[in-house]
Amino acid sequence: MADRCTQGECSKNEVKTPNSYRRNTHILFYGNCVMPALAGDLTVFLVTAMIFEIDPRIIGPDELRADPKLAEAADLTYETSQSGVRAMLPCALSYVPVSQVIPSATIAGLARRVSTPKSSLRDRVLAKQFAPGVLRGQVEYLFDVGNWSQYFKSEPGKVYGTMLMMLQLPFSQGSVHIPPKSAAGPPTMLTKPVIDPQYYGGEGGGVDFDIMTAGQKFAAKICSTAPLSNIIKSRVFPPQQGATADEEDFTDFVRNFTASDWHPVGSCGMGGSAGIAAGVVDDRLRVYGVGGLRVVDASIMPLQICAHVQATIYAIGEKGSAMILEDRRVGG
After folding, report:
1. What is the pLDDT of residue 1?
2. pTM greater than the 0.90 cutoff
3. Which keywords belong to this entry (predicted)?
4. DSSP string of 83-148?
5. For 228, which DSSP code?
6. Averaged over 239-256, what is the pLDDT?
């Protein structure tokens, strides 16, 4: 317990580990905790980034970073009048139901692919998002000034905008593990974990891929529609292929340029009614089979949510703290 206290937060007779999905699984593996679901249910938002050259009169973060005098002037404008580029909202975003992105006949086919008798409980729960009349924000679109892509290099003197598309409820699952023993010796708590997000992997990975591919066409339509299109000169990544979005094929773009939008969950998920067979912690965030140890962070979420998860993580922290105090009072 003393060793665990160095990695988490200690209260009387208990340790909680708000260490993120990387370190929580690391701690449990290092402590010889053996559970079927440990570290194998990692889920991240999948994201692609379309890049556009936009009106050069627009000033964004890239321009401020490249020109100290411009940044100084922007700072002064904000300090004196609370206006200018420093007062702008960071981005515009929207959560869109998949039914607005993909034809209903196609959605029905996706549902059948992940609702077979052999499908896992998790996949069957996720498949409910395709039921008729269900409106969830499964696909997020976010536009901002600047080049957000790790794959496209900006040209000096040009101003760029980025359209991100993010899949909120992916079927794909990755893993987090400690590395094997090396010539230098066995792994320690300071050894970096081995993280494999498994984009588009598993039985439901093809469904994720099809949604992402179809969703790119919707992203292209957004950017070709006024008033947003009024500030866009051209799409530079991926290059324009057809006269309209419907004529384009984004298969290779999605396959080669999908990245993680982070917000990982699930590597220490709650087991629910299935208990240790399906999770790592119970409904009070206690690690199965380990006395006095809880996980209190995003890794306990068994599924993603259709939102940026930060506020929910704050709530998990508050709820976890309340649970510890409640259990201490009950236990004396």
Report:
1. 32
2. no
3. FAD, Flavoprotein, Membrane, Oxidoreductase, Transmembrane, Transmembrane helix
4. -SGGGS-S-EEEEE-GGGTS-HHHHHHHHHHT-STTS-HHHHHHHGGGSTT-----EEEEEEES--
5. G
6. 91
Catalytic residue among 26, 177, 263, 308: 263
Q: Could you give the CA distance from residue 285 to residue 65 in angstroms, rounded to a whole number?
A: 43
Distance separating alpha carbons of residues 312 and 111, to the nearest angstrom? 28
User: Is 308 among the catalytic positions?
Assistant: no
User: Which two structure tokens, joined as six digits, stand for 73?
Assistant: 């002037």
Of 119-123, 221-225, 275-279, the poorest mean pLDDT is in: 119-123
CB 268 within 8 A of CB 302: no
Euclidean distance between CA atoms 264 and 178, whole angstroms? 17
Residues 6+ apart with CB under 8 A from 221: 245
pLDDT at 7: 40
**Arithmetic mean of pLDDT over the chain:** 87
CA–CA gap between residue 46 and residue 182 (Å, rounded) = 32
Q: Which residue reads 């690690």 in tokens?
A: 287
CA-nearest of 327, 266, 257 to 300 is 266
Contacts of 45 (CB under 8 A, 6+ apart): 140, 166, 167, 168, 170, 260, 261, 262, 263, 304
Q: Which residue has the higher pLDDT, 219 or 119?
A: 219
Using DSSP's 3-state secondary structure scheme, residue 14 falls into strand
Q: Which domains does the chain have, with CATH numbers?
A: 2-43+265-331 (3.50.50.60), 46-58+90-177+193-260 (3.30.560.10)
Helix (H, G, I), strand (E, B) or coil at 325: helix
